[in-house]
Design brief:
It is a single chain. The protein has helices at residues 17-28, 49-60, 80-95, 125-142, 157-171, 182-191, 196-200, 240-249, 271-294, 317-332, 336-344, 360-372, and strands at 8-12, 34-37, 64-67, 100-104, 107-108, 118-119, 146-149, 177-181, 208-213, 217-220, 228-231, 258-261. It is an alpha/beta fold. The strands form three sheets. It has an eight-stranded parallel β-barrel with strand order 1-2-3-4-7-8-9-12, surrounded by six helices. A hairpin with a 7-residue loop joins strand 10 and strand 11 (228-231). Helix 3 (80-95) packs parallel to helix 4 (125-142) and helix 4 packs across helix 5. The longest helix is centred in the last third of the chain and has 24 residues, at 271-294.
Length: 378
């Protein structure tokens, strides 16, 4: 008799025509064990009845997981948009039975709530209070396990090494779990020339309930012509190296439940890319099936050990001003040299941000990330 799977091969699926075209054959033949839905990506658009029915089908089987993108967890000022985000999540949690809900580490640059990319924050007591407060509010809104995804981007090797420990501290009050995004890990392994064994030892793997795999892209650096920067752009096939990371990492995660393939629709606009996407899913599914035969992780539910009660919203005026200042510099500087000089004259200099330790090629990369998403004049 075949053992029921304890790890499910899942797809990140949104209401995108190219993504749906790529995923439909996998859904039609029953290959998809679970769906991850970025519930805040519609930005007010109406959800078609057939898509709602698809979500309900997975929800009824306790195989629907919610993935937030735009909450900006570590922004130091509470916004109307964040309050609206929580209210929307609460409504959806009543409509669907999410097996868990997750968000991204970091704060967003950009003036538009639905445009941006998450960037790091200093690992301080103020940041910790804010992040814990926001996770508690998400937990209250959805009444299910809450998780946080590791970030791909970092400014320094020291920041990379401290990331896992800080994630652990953020998750403690809600008994939360970690999404270990292996492409994000791949970015850090390459960009900072650190070994897998050294880096993976710094993460709380007993808290991993979900793994992401995806593809990305390479960026040039004008500062280091011979170096390529790995970017987490989700617009290409999964590299072989990430599949190797998946095979090596699954056995280390005793509470793993989902392995999710992600790719954005803008990378799925050709028949070739859609075929490759399905091949990536089947390759991932095979590795998951092998792991299910070798071991059976425990389905630990990561529910809060006691009711989560939120007091006044945590904010920090000084940190918010620094975030605004950094965002403005990243969005408007014309070169690394200009950004570096402006940072040295800013309130971030000689502070807990440790800008003096930032790798120049990563600051240059941050300029590209921020300016890609900068709100354009209408």
């Amino acid at each position: 008799m075949t053992k029921p799977p304890t790890i499910f091969a899942a797809l990140a699926l949104n209401l995108d025509a190219d993504m749906l075209a790529a995923a439909f054959p996998l859904l039609a033949d029953g290959s998809v064990g679970a769906l991850e839905w970025s519930f805040d990506a519609l930005s007010g658009a109406n959800t078609p009845v057939w898509f709602t029915e698809l979500l309900h089908a997975f929800s009824k089987e306790q195989r629907l997981i919610g993935h937030g993108v735009f909450f900006s967890l570590l922004s130091a000022r509470w916004t109307t948009e964040q309050q609206q985000w929580l209210q929307r999540l609460n409504q959806l949690a009543r409509q669907f039975s999410f097996n868990h809900v997750t968000e991204h580490f970091g704060f967003f640059t950009g003036q538009n709530f639905h445009s941006g990319a998450p960037l790091p924050v200093p690992y301080t007591a103020a940041t910790l209070r804010i992040g814990q407060d926001r996770l508690c509010r998400i937990s209250e809104a959805c009444s299910c396990p809450v998780g946080l995804e590791n970030l791909a981007f970092a400014y320094s090797l020291e920041e990379v090494k401290r990331h896992g420990e800080f994630l652990d501290k953020l998750l403690t009050p809600v008994n939360g779990f970690l999404i270990l995004d292996l492409h994000n890990l791949y970015c850090q392994l390459h960009n900072f020339s650190i070994s897998y064994e050294e880096l993976i030892a710094l993460y709380p793997l007993e808290e991993v309930r979900e793994i992401h795999i995806s593809g990305g892209s390479w960026a040039d650096s004008s500062l280091l012509p011979d170096k390529k920067i790995r970017r987490d752009t989700h617009d290409d096939a999964v590299p072989d190296e990430v599949f190797s990371l998946l095979k090596a990492t699954m056995p280390r995660c005793p509470h793993l439940k989902y392995v999710v393939l992600e790719q954005l629709g803008n990378g799925l606009q050709t028949e070739h890319s859609q075929t490759r996407f399905r091949q990536d899913f089947l390759r991932m599914q095979k590795l998951v099936a092998q792991q299910n035969q070798e071991s059976r992780p425990t389905d630990y539910h990561f529910l809060p050990r006691q009711p989560v009660v939120s007091g006044p919203v945590e904010e920090d005026v000084r940190l918010y001003a620094q975030q605004q200042q950094l965002s403005h510099i990243l969005e408007t500087a014309h070169s690394y040299e200009e950004a570096h000089q402006r940072l040295l004259l800013s309130s971030l200099a000689q502070s807990e941000w440790q800008i003096e330790q930032w790798a120049p090629y990563m600051l240059e990369t941050a300029l590209g990330i921020a300016q890609k998403w900068q709100l354009k004049p209408s």
